């Protein structure tokens, strides 16, 4: 049996839960190395399917679905994720090695959109999606570059020129 798609599903659901391989391993009593082997399709996760599904808040059938067979359409895309501010304040793929699963519509609005961990801005738990290329309207919220970091502000109240992009959406974590 080809376990590659099962491994990819494990990785997708793990990332949705914002878990590291070590955290998932701890939940099911395995090593992070074994989680890595499952995700890469090197080892079969079938004996651990129930515990993996429970730890990932999904069902075993979700982990078994072959997303490449055309029967299931994935509804998310990977966007660059920033957990720190790049030195040059340029938020593009070449300035990060992290990626986040965003809804497809985010990239349909702007193929250069990126995700930003909210802890970088105000210490809160969540992810924001930012479009550096979308047209900005008077009622929009924008990501602004400040000398000491980043800030979210309404275009109505902001008077400067350091707009890095339009805020598309936020995902809050609890």
From TrEMBL:
Q: Which UniProt keywords apply?
A: DNA-binding
Keyword DNA-binding attached? yes
Enumerate the GO terms in the molecular function aspect: DNA binding; DNA-binding transcription factor activity
Q: What is this protein called?
A: DNA-binding helix-turn-helix protein
Locate the HTH cro/C1-type domain: which residues?
10-63
Gene Ontology CC entries for this record = cytosol
| SMART domains associated with the record | HTH_XRE
Per the record, a Pfam family? HTH_3
Cite the SUPFAM superfamilies for this sequence. lambda repressor-like DNA-binding domains
């Amino acid at each position: 049996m080809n376990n590659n798609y099962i491994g990819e599903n494990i990785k997708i659901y793990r990332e949705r839960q914002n878990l590291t391989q070590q955290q998932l391993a701890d939940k099911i009593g395995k090593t992070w190395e074994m989680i890595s082997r499952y995700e890469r399709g090197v080892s079969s996760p079938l004996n651990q399917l129930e515990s993996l599904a429970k730890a990932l808040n999904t069902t075993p059938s979700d982990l078994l679905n072959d997303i490449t067979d055309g029967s299931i359409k994935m509804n998310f895309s990977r966007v660059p994720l920033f957990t720190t501010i790049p030195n040059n304040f340029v938020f593009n793929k070449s300035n990060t090695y992290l990626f986040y699963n965003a809804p497809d519509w985010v990239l349909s609005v702007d193929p250069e959109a990126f995700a930003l961990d909210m802890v970088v801005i105000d210490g809160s738990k969540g992810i924001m999606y930012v479009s550096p290329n979308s047209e900005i309207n008077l009622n929009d919220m924008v990501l602004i570059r400040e000398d000491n970091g980043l800030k979210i502000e309404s275009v109505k109240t902001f008077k400067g020129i350091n707009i890095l992009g339009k805020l598309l959406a936020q995902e809050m974590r609890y």
